[in-house]
Amino acid sequence: MDQEKMDRRIAKTRIAIKNVFTELIDEIGFDAVTVKNITDKANINRSTFYLHYRDKYDLLEKSEEEIIQKIEEISKSIRRLTPKELNNLYSDNKPFPFVIKLAEYFRDNAAFLKVILGPKGDLSFQEKIKTILEKNIVENVRAIFGEGTFHVPIDVFMAYIISAHVGSILHWLNTGMKQSPEEIATIIFNLTFQGPVNAIGFKKFQ
Amino acid sequence: MDQEKMDRRIAKTRIAIKNVFTELIDEIGFDAVTVKNITDKANINRSTFYLHYRDKYDLLEKSEEEIIQKIEEISKSIRRLTPKELNNLYSDNKPFPFVIKLAEYFRDNAAFLKVILGPKGDLSFQEKIKTILEKNIVENVRAIFGEGTFHVPIDVFMAYIISAHVGSILHWLNTGMKQSPEEIATIIFNLTFQGPVNAIGFKKFQ
DNA sequence: AGATTAATAAACACAGTGTTAATTATTTTG
DNA sequence: CAAAATAATTAACACTGTGTTTATTAATCT
């Protein structure tokens, strides 16, 4: 929180621990990481670790909590769209601002996010991200469709697009972020609004 | 493999281990599971465990391997569709046979799959499932579109629909499988071909 | 410069690991 | 069914990591 008033030794130690932690998860996977691993690699005494974190799960939780809070801030900072505004986005082929901001945040924190969301990371973290996304999308869906009936079960629809969004951004992150945040957001927007099969250029045969 | 010729004691022990293993992952998460946990709960001697598996990772690997092989069999057993056949599916609103079969297999093995693909499970397993799906879809895409240019990057398209498919089926599994395998496959098919936003019934405002 | 606080070092009992060897129990087979 | 084969058990082993404590050293803040 208040990184300003923090004793330099504390700040230094925590940064060292977190950096080494990220590296180790990447190298051997979270559950293989030991406290001893961390302190050896960070060149600090094992007791020092316990002055800051209860155990490796506490460290994981606190590292994730920082990210979650930031993403929730981003989500809250963006005003809900009116049906009219959404319509304009659709006409102008402009992606949701939230998805752009999300991609930007992922880009700026790629090191930790790649690892923690990767195959050696923490599956429950993906769920937490999805929950934030869900909150965000639910509100937009309500605003646009009201409580009317849908052609497909709304819960499956939600699961579909949330998984698709997270999966796409993660793919983008893991393949070197070849597009800008705006570009990847636009691609995802098109896949969602035109539908993947139309977006890619499928024409019905006759 | 040859469960026929297996000594009854071996079969009994391995089934006991695998059942308890699934329960424990569900209860405390894979990385918290210890060999001692497993053998205590299964009421077998700890040494017995080591007669069958090298460690808990070996057990995980072998449990996953069975599933992967079955899903790969399913994938291979289904003939590739011709563009004409795909067109017919599209016209008749009939889902891909592979997706139906996949949903059926998930339904029939829900206990282990729910746990291993859940937040306390193994993230790398989801990747393995996605890899099989990718192989399957790539062939269909090639058959239909050839090597032509696409309106969106093909890799993002793939990541999008694969994540969407896995995410939807997992959601279906975790919420009590309210639809039949055919139904959920049809829903996913519609979301993919019409696009999520159209499928749900969105009409452009004017 | 002195007071404060963080980091270190060394020791502790404790959990679980993976292996071994001898013994007991069950299953297979001839 | 009895003998042979093999699986499971028991108990012991050294080893690695955990989480905590206490005294000492070192860095920082005021």
UniProtKB/TrEMBL annotation, chains A, B:
It holds the Pfam family TetR_N. The keyword tRNA processing does not apply. Coiled coil: none annotated. Keywords: DNA-binding. One of its GO terms (molecular function) is DNA binding. Residues 34-53 bind DNA. Residues 11-71 form the HTH tetR-type domain. It comes from the Bacteria. InterPro entries: Homeodomain-like_sf, HTH-type_Tx_Regulator, HTH_TetR, TetR_C_Firmicutes. This is TetR/AcrR family transcriptional regulator. It comes from Paenibacillus albiflavus.
